[in-house]
Amino acid sequence: MTWKYPLSDIDLGREEEQAVLSVLRTRWLSTGPVTERFEKAFSEFLGGGELIAVSSGTAALHLALSSLGLKEGDEVILPSLTFVATANAVLYHRAKPVFADIRGQEDLNISPDEIERKMTRKTKAILVMHYGGYPCNMAAILRHARSHGIPVVEDAAHAPGSVYRGRKCGTIGALGCFSFFSNKNLVTGEGGLVFTRDKTLAERVRTLRSHGMRALSWDKYRGHLSSYDVETLGYNYRTTEIQSALGCIQLKKLERNNQKRKGLVGVYREELRESPGVLIPFFRFNGDYSHHLFPILVKGGNGRPSNDLRDQLMVQLRDRGVQTSIHYPPVHLFSLYRKLFGYRSGMLPVTEEVSQGILTLPLHPRMGKADAAWIAREVKEIVGRWS
Ligand SMILES: Cc1ncc(COP(=O)(O)O)c(C=O)c1O
């Protein structure tokens, strides 16, 4: 189906085409000098620190947790209202994901109080996710983390360019993980980055990225190395020069496109603010954010999120050519997680209630303000018929 209003779209043009072509002409395609340039540029964008480019956001999360020495029996506290990759990165270590509830309907991020409540002697890390690019309450989370001596890892897949109290999301905890998957604010097809200021952690991530070797194939290719040693079991999570070339161009567009998204969110908020039956999460978040997603909460006559009405709205918008999505079905209720840990409904009441009524509307830099206004009016018209 071709959508009149797709959920997301990407800003790719001649600059990206040229950059990819110039990589092809160098005849070196795996991690190399262009990737180093991308890492450096992203580090400057974040205000300094070590950056390691990898093959996906999932790989970034995997390596970030590995660098902390996570192992079987350890626990990691994280939200359930996230993409499954956040939690899978914990499972890769045979560690236990301990899900904490979100703050509420107006702030869908992990609750610092819940984190504190879920802390045990086995807790090895706190893994937060900045939903839609709206920052978690990092001050409170870091306070709890420090008092227990536990590192915080940020899943900043939604949040490149988001700022929390003057600091970029992804640079506030011990490690930050970014994704450049095809629908993200900065797109390379597949790709990710790990950020850290800690040189030891950075060295571990860099080594694990390429089979536990300190040297890259690039070093061998350019003749700097004839042999190598393997110190730990690593992976092939290297990225390619093609992706990094795209990343360099996309990074230059990021702030402008985040601003565009902000403008569109402003239109949505204005149009929908008084619509009965619709609550706009993060309405009071007015800083510099990536605005990766625009979620609304569809409510029934009893004022509670309604699964039935949300699904009806989704179908009616689809019939008008508007693509929507659900971010997210709670991870703890997926069959795999129920089977492995005995998780069940009722464990995370706020997350579960919100996920019943949550709906994501289209938001991307190729949309105009008139598009957002049209979609919002359609939402109002459909929802208005129910009240
Ligand atoms: C919150 C979140 N975490 C992690 C990921 C995983 O990133 P990737 O798809 O690049 O592996 C995604 C991306 O889809 C995501 O949305």
* Adjacency order of strands in the biggest sheet: 1-9-8-5-4-2-3
Low-confidence stretches: none
**End-to-end gap:** 31 Å
- Series of secondary-structure elements, N-terminal to C-terminal: HHEHEHEHEHEEEEEHHHEEHHHEH
Amount of helix: 40-55%
Averaged pLDDT: 96
**Largest sheet, described in full?**
7 strands, mixed
Structural class: alpha/beta
Ligand identities:
pyridoxal-5'-phosphate
Cα Rg: 21 Å
Strand portion: 5-15%
H/I helix tally = 13
Q: What is the molecular shape?
A: globular
Blueprint of the fold:
Blueprint: H1 14-26, H2 33-46, E1 50-54, H3 57-67, E2 75-79, H4 84-91, E3 96-100, H5 112-118, E4 123-129, H6 138-148, E5 152-155, E6 163-164, E7 167-168, E8 175-179, E9 192-196, H7 199-209, H8 217-221, H9 241-272, E10 278-279, E11 294-298, H10 307-319, H11 335-341, H12 349-357, E12 358-361, H13 369-384
Parallel strand pairs: 2-3, 2-4, 4-5, 5-8
Antiparallel strand pairs: 1-9, 6-7, 8-9, 10-11, 11-12
Helix pairs in contact: 1-9, 2-9, 3-4, 3-7, 5-6, 9-13, 10-13
Bound molecules: pyridoxal-5'-phosphate.
Characterization of this structure:
With 387 residues, the chain is an alpha/beta fold. It has 13 helices and 12 strands. The protein has helices at 14-26, 33-46, 57-67, 84-91, 112-118, 138-148, 199-209, 217-221, 241-272, 307-319, 335-341, 349-357, 369-384; strands spanning 50-54, 75-79, 96-100, 123-129, 152-155, 163-164, 167-168, 175-179, 192-196, 278-279, 294-298, 358-361. The strands form 3 sheets. A 7-stranded mixed β-sheet has the order 1-9-8-5-4-2-3, sandwiched between helices. It has a 3-stranded antiparallel β-sheet with strand order 10-11-12. β6 and β7 (167-168) form a beta hairpin. α3 crosses α7. The radius of gyration is 21 Å and the shape is globular. The two termini are 31 Å apart. The mean pLDDT is 96. The protein binds pyridoxal-5'-phosphate (PLP).
